[in-house]
Amino acid sequence: MQAVGVVVEYNPFHNGHAYHVQQAKKLTKADVVIAVMSGQFLQRGEPALVDKWARTKMALASGVDIVIELPYVFSTAHAKQFAYGAISLLQAAGCQTFTFGSEDGRLEPFLDSFVLIQQNKELYDAFIKEFMTTGISYPKALQEAYTALQQQFPGTYIDLAKPNNILGFHYIEAAHLLKNKIQPATITRIGAGYHDAINEQSQIASATGIRQALFQEKVLQNINQFVPSPTYQLLEEWQQVHSTFASWHTFWPLLRFAILRHTPEQLSAFPDVSEGIEYALIKHAKNALSFNDFMDKIKSKRYTWTRLQRILTHIYTGITKQQLHAHTEPSYIRLLGMTENGQRYLSMYKKHMTLPLISRVAATQNDMLSLDIRATTMYQQGLSFHTMNDDYNTPPIRR
């Protein structure tokens, strides 16, 4: 059986995701689609709309055969580490190929951009250092350095200002670091862009647009046309139980408490906390009326919204830079769910996987896994005190 991998958050699973799964299977002629999916907290530093088990059910109902979890260490990391962890897991799970979405569906510009930076690394690093002295954020400095490099060596390259292209570039980079044992392929994105609001004349919307519609209009029916029916049903069930969806707005009282219970010295132990931002966090947490009010007060050229959210994620979960940086490689494959087809694949290839497959958390002792378990506990506390799924009592979803 041939397996193709996809790197996902499914926040939530929508029609564009369903299209990508179908095309991934078709393009690579794979028998099985394996999704490595972020857990309770995501790459942009925010809690997932619904938990990882609900999103696993969405995926399995709409074409994915196996869902494995991207550990917290990688799911909340910068794009390079996020991509490396994800592609490493797909390779360990036996995927021959992986696919990702891009604006024009051509792989060559990604490969050319990768070669451009690799062959001119010293010049690229010098440009980054130069732009950082102007006081701009690190991501912005990377973009400016990349633009300067293109001017020196004209060619057909990707636009690294677009979030999906940034991740695609780092997927290519990760495959290279892994000796190209897993091969990349790209699929043209259809419909909405990454940050686009929903368009009622279309059946395709970005996950960002769907979440905005849910939080602003608070009417689930308004997103019905943009998601497969199983997704809609699962969101409906979630809303009936919890009355709300997860967000920093929902978590704000506990996040505020988590900030204020620390001294500035203690806050400095968390990833990305530097240059005195710890003092600003405490100062503005005392007076902010809401999460958005808090973010508006602390955001700056140096500290982007995404960087700040990642910092807040680690403060909220209590995971320090020492704990996070102790792990640079995935050490297990955590199974979240599978279809019958996925189960057949696992039966055939489990012994050939290069990392242990974990289906029962209680039977496993692993420091990286303990961080995932803590993240789940804190995610649950942010939502409600109802009885919820947790890592010890929830077996892999079967469909």
Structure description:
50% of the residues lie in helices and 10% in strands. Helix 1 (15-28) links the parallel strand 1 (3-8) and strand 2 (32-38). The protein is of the alpha/beta class and 399 residues long. The model has no long low-confidence stretch (mean pLDDT 92). The protein has helices at residues 15-28, 52-60, 72-75, 79-92, 108-119, 121-132, 138-152, 163-177, 207-217, 229-242, 248-260, 264-267, 277-287, 291-298, 305-317, 321-325, 340-349, 367-383, and strands at residues 3-8, 32-38, 66-70, 97-102, 183-188, 333-338, 357-358, 397-398. It is an enzyme of class 6 (ligase).
Number of strands: 8
Question: Percent range for helical residues?
Answer: 40-55%
Q: Report the span from N to C terminus.
A: 19 Å
The topology string of helices and strands comes to EHEHEHHEHHHHEHHHHHHHHEHEHE
Largest sheet properties: 8 strands, mixed
SSE-based structural type: alpha/beta
Estimate the strand proportion: 5-15%
Rounded to the nearest angstrom, the radius of gyration is: 21 Å
Keywords: ATP-binding, Cytoplasm, Ligase, Nucleotide-binding, RNA-binding, tRNA processing, tRNA-binding
Pfam families: HIGH_NTase1
GO molecular function, one term: tRNA binding
Enzyme class: ligase
